[in-house]
User: What shape does this take?
Amino acid sequence: MALAFVGTFAANAQCWMGGNMSFWQGDSETKFSIAPEIGYSFYDNPISLAAAFGYHYYSYEDDLGDDHTTDAFVVSPYIRCNLAYVDQFSFFLDGGAEMAFLSDGTAWRAGLKPGVAFSPTGHWTAVAHMGFLGYDDGKYFGDKGFGMTFDASVVSLGLYYNF
Assistant: This one.
């Protein structure tokens, strides 16, 4: 009976795997991040649960010529609410937290990220997040405080495989 229940529950859901990756090499800085992600969409329901687990590397030279390096392991659980569907597009709002584990402690932020997903096939989805509204403790992700931003520095793109 338990196997039948699990099978029915799994048949009424859709899982996805994918994530984000970025790299930037400038005159005085290097940035790299990789964040695999896994999620679970409930059948016929606008709610999804997901989490990304990532590694961030940031190296830069300050104005005095000193080199600085930061490594962080980042965990980002969230809940997604799909707000509207138009053909192969869906518009959503992710609400969650990001926690960075650094060599000298932890950092976190929590808030909302609006986004859009494009599904050209049943198995592939491209996702774009645009902005952030929430609170940041100021130790890693940005300045301390509450607010919103919709500039290009907070746009992220991802690709997911649905199964």
